[in-house]
Amino acid sequence: DHIVESGGGLVQPGGSLRLSCSTSTSTLEGFAVGWFRQAPGKEREAVSCINSGDQITYYLASVMGRFSTARDNAKNTVYLQMNSLKPEDTAVYYCAVHWGCSWSAAEYDYWGQGTRVTVSS
Q1: 63 exposed, middle or buried (CB, 10 Å; 0-12, 13-18, 19+)?
Q2: CA 104 to CA 57: how far, in whole Å?
Q3: Closest to 29 measured CA to CA, from 69, 81, 71
Q4: Contact status, residue 119 vs residue 9, Cβ threshold 8 Å
């Protein structure tokens, strides 16, 4: 599957970005989609996940209340809305697909190439 993330960029602290995750070769519907990030010199960490069906969402504690994820099955796209961004949110953000939400990156089957988010003044 060819998964593509987009929407990254440079933003000032306190700003917002919306990341998109999509695929043109299959459907995201029926799969959980997780968002992960990896900062330089750090391990990849799970940021959020949205289930298929019930669309229950999960968030890393440090992004709770600032980030939200939603899916638009008609557009075959999952979004990560990021508000009140902080310098520590700087990382490459990836989306990945699995049958159900998990905090473990190793369980995800397909990954995008990532989109870079830089939060800096």
Answers
A1: buried
A2: 15
A3: 71
A4: no
- Identity of the amino acid at 114: G
Written as one string, the DSSP assignment of 98-109 is ESS--S-GGG--
Q: What is the pLDDT along the chain (121 residues), one digit of tens a residue?
A: 689 999 999 999 999 999 999 998 788 888 999 999 999 999 999 999 999 988 999 999 999 999 999 999 999 999 999 999 999 999 999 999 999 999 999 999 899 999 999 999 9
Structure tokens at 99: 């049958």
Helix, strand, or coil (residue 76): coil
Supply 36's token pair: 């992960």
The residue written with tokens 């796209």 in the block is 77
For residue 20, the one-letter residue type is: S
Tens digit of each residue's pLDDT (9 = 90 or more) over 81-112: 999 999 999 999 999 999 999 999 999 989 99
Beta bridge partners of 10: 118
Q: How many CB atoms lie within 10 A of CB 119?
A: 20
d(CA 102, CA 35): 10
